[in-house]
Amino acid sequence: MTSAVSFQKVSRHFGKVKAVDAVDLDVAPGEFFAMLGPSGSGKTTCLRLIAGFEQPTAGSISIFGERAEGVPPYRRNVNTVFQDYALFPHLNILDNVAYGLMVKGIGKAERHKAAEEALALVRLPGFGGRRPSQLSGGQRQRVALARALVNQPKVLLLDEPLGALDLKLRENMQEELKALQKALGITFIFVTHDQGEALSMADRVAVFNDGKIMQVGTPQDIYERPSTRFVADFVGSSNVLPPDFVQRYSGQHRWGSLRPEAIRVGKATRGDGVSARLVSANYLGATTRLALDADGLRLHAVVPAGTKLPEEGEALVLTFNRDQLHLMDEAG
Amino acid sequence: MRSDRSQKSPLGLKIAAGLGLVFLHAPILLIFVYAFTTEEKSYQWPPPGLTTQWFAVTWNRPDVWEALSLSVRVAAISTAIAIVLGTLCAAAVSRSKFFGRETISLLVILPIALPGIITGIALRSAFALTEIPFSFWTIILGHATFCVVVVYNNAVARFRRTSGSMIEASMDLGADGFQTFRHVVLPNIATALLAGGMLAFALSFDEVIVTTFTAGQQQTLPIWMLEELIRPRQRPVTNVVAMVVVLVTLLPILLAYYLTRDGDQIAGSGK
Ligand SMILES: Nc1ncnc2c1ncn2[C@@H]1O[C@H](COP(=O)(O)OP(=O)(O)OP(=O)(O)O)[C@@H](O)[C@H]1O
Ligand SMILES: [Mg+2]
After folding, report:
1. Of A22, A231, B90, B110, which cross-links B155 as Cys (Cβ 3.0–4.6 Å)?
2. Do A90 and B165 touch (CB under 8 A)?
3. Residue of B173, B182, B189 for testing the chain A interface, max A β-carbons within 10 Å
């Protein structure tokens, strides 16, 4: 099966800045694909390469099997939901949504009907007569989505679409976007720097750092089996364990990771394990996050709320199942 | 909340402001009054009598019509040239980064900062050097130098406020460069262009200094008026023409003022 989007050793350098550097990528048709990474890691540049606003300085891009280099944005069957929505202030909502059909020469009655349907799809029926300035941030976001979807793109690109929304609205929109993607079967490529958002929504996640992809995999892969220290650290604050420590438990001199919730915390009297002292406890609602000091190594553990907490400075013993200890690709 | 809004301005300040306004506008009213005077050789205060005969006299003088027609044609063509060049220039300066961009921006604005007499002398010597005879077109060239600036200034401000991602959004939705210009860029800068164009028209219409250096035997309306003041015959005709000039230039300026004010609100609310 041909990939929806495929990158072969794609680079986009701006002078000395390697915004995207020798990236290989395959997104399957109908997939919800997330690009996750810190600020400046090249996510937006990747999207712009797919949309056609940037040309690669090396490598090749294909979209559904067709070479994309040199094809202008308006001839690609790809649409974008921009981070600042980029609605047209001089047009009302209906004409904003119908814009793509208008420039394709579709008649007024037909394109307005399609736009109404798209607005209903994003749950904004009857908003067509308003101006963009008369909508809330969340509503503008939906209009931007409808404006892209009305063109029935093969690939929809979303650049931090929920970035400007408050927490509650964000969570609602996450669910809606996911449901919409399932219903329409369009390939979604979704950029975010929020790991929770990427893990909860995507079929697969690519973790970016410094213009390179560090790891691609399912949310479980990324979360439980990070391949590098960077991924372990960035995706959900795993404990990163140095090679000397890992060798004692696995026999291999490699970097390892251990999820905070895999650590059991007990009193010092309970036999063998890693001896540690409690540094601080952070109440997080459903859980409490403990910062521990094991002979100079800082570890984090998570215990359910309601557990009786040890005193600060108290001597403790940490235990974990050895199969929870994940060995990373990096050797010591 | 502005706290000073509730405070009353002191009486002294009000009187000063009133006097200022009288000082600015009384001479203009005086011109209007003299358009109706019965005394044609000198400006006598108070006017010995009032009459409307000068309107008829003005209407029947071919030299007035010639000058008026020349001024209108010059202003219209200079404005048209300014709109095209000023918009293109503003688009280049605000849309792309290139070497010497700031310098170009400064060079475009310079003609309006320079005294008109410098522009006039420079153009005159340039025409003499290249042996271009003075004509309708040399006047237009002179006027275009400052008309371009006015349009450019208006357009560049609006371009800055039109977010670049709007143009990308248009391309993304399938519009090519021309369609994007027609459906997105133009509607967003239209009021700015109209305002710039009207100001340019008004500036060109009453320009004297540059025109004296670049015109040959032809007389634009303001130059005709200057000449006319020296003649001691039918003086109120000049005043009638002055009234017309005030109206012709004031209306576009007022309209431009309202258009840009309105445009600010439209462009600002899209964000
Ligand atoms: N047009 C450009 N010219 C020069 N450098 C650029 C350009 N566009 C991006 N860059 C650089 O490329 C790098 C990657 O930028 P990019 O916008 O792709 O990051 P990002 O992952 O989207 O970050 P964020 O999460 O902050 O949006 C950055 O260092 C940025 O400064
Ligand atoms: Mg970005």
Report:
1. B90
2. no
3. B173
Rounded CA separation B109/B222 (Å): 25
Instruction: Tell me, yes or no, if A103 comes closer than 8 A to chain B by beta carbon.
Output: yes
Inter-residue contact B203 to B252 (CB < 8 Å): no
- A5-233 maps to CATH 3.40.50.300: yes
A10 alpha-carbon distance from chain centroid? 20
- Compute CA A109 distance to the chain's CA centroid, rounded to the nearest angstrom: 39
A·B CB contacts under 8 A: 72
As a CATH number, domain A237-331 is 2.40.50.140
Of B163, B179, B187, the CB nearest to A86: B163
Homologous superfamily of B62-260? MetI-like (1.10.3720.10)
pLDDT of residue A136 exceeding 60, the answer is yes
pLDDT in tens, B115-142: 888 888 998 898 888 888 888 888 999 8
Residue B46: how many other CB atoms lie within 10 Å: 8
Report CA(A98)–ligand 2 centroid distance (Å): 27
Write down the pLDDT at residue A164: 76
User: What are the Cα distances from residue B210, in Å, to A63, A176, B67, B158, B216?
Assistant: 60, 66, 16, 29, 12
Residue A58 reports pLDDT greater than 70 = yes
| A72 contacts in chain B (CB < 8 Å) | 171, 176
Q: In this predicted complex, what is the ipTM?
A: 0.81
For chain A, give every domain's residue range: 5-233, 237-331
Is this model's pTM higher than 0.90 or not? no
Residue with the two structure tokens 């893990």: A199
Q: Are strands A78-81 and A155-159 parallel, antiparallel or unpaired?
A: parallel
Cα B7 to Cα A250, B14, B15, B16: the distances in Å are 80, 13, 17, 18
Q: Cα–Cα distances in Å, from A98 out to A85, A110, A137, A141, A326?
A: 15, 9, 20, 16, 51
